[in-house]
């Protein structure tokens, strides 16, 4: 949380964005990081001024910060893997994710399904309208250097 108040971090993110003009840079913020709506609005404004997008991580875990969603809307929400794991076998979670996707789309917020490990989970998430996905089925974690090497 202290990093988000660090001007160096914001400047480093801006330099990264400048160095990768053909890439979208997205700062991923866990819902527990920001203590107040006004602080999130300030951060959102500073990121936007630097050409950096914002994603709320682990949305749907714990106490989702609905006020921040309304007052400082992100570019993306990453649905918590607890909602995604086994979603293909859970009609209730499917209904919940479909409702969240509708609300996000109505507010021009992209939805990322986090923790996709099976093709059934991926197919279900796509059917429900999740635009993007993340998880071991799609790609294992990699270092920034390894990823950079694949971009070139």
Short recap of the structure:
The protein has 152 residues and is an alpha/beta fold. It has helices at residues 7-19, 37-49, 66-71, 81-84, 91-106, 119-128, 144-151, and strands spanning 26-30, 53-59, 76-79, 110-114, 132-134.
Describe this structure in words.
The structure is a single chain. By secondary structure, this protein is α/β, with parallel strands linked by helices. 46% of the residues lie in helices and 16% in strands. It has helices at 7-19, 37-49, 66-71, 81-84, 91-106, 119-128, 144-151; strands spanning 26-30, 53-59, 76-79, 110-114, 132-134. Strands 1-2-3-4-5 form a five-stranded parallel sheet. The model has no long low-confidence stretch (mean pLDDT 86).
């Amino acid at each position: 949380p202290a990093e988000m108040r660090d001007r160096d971090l914001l400047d480093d993110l801006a330099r990264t964005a400048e160095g990768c003009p053909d890439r979208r840079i997205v700062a991923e913020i866990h819902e527990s990081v920001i203590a107040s709506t006004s602080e999130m609005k300030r951060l959102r404004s500073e990121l936007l001024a630097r050409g950096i997008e914002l994603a709320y991580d682990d949305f749907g875990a714990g106490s989702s910060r609905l006020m921040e969603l309304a007052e400082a809307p992100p570019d993306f929400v990453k649905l918590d893997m607890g909602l995604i794991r086994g979603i293909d076998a859970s009609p209730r979670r499917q209904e919940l994710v479909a409702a969240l996707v509708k609300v996000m789309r109505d507010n021009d917020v992209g939805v990322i399904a986090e923790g996709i490990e099976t093709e059934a989970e991926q197919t279900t998430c796509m059917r429900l309208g999740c635009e993007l996905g993340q998880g071991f089925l799609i790609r294992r974690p990699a270092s920034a250097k390894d990823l950079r090497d694949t971009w070139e």
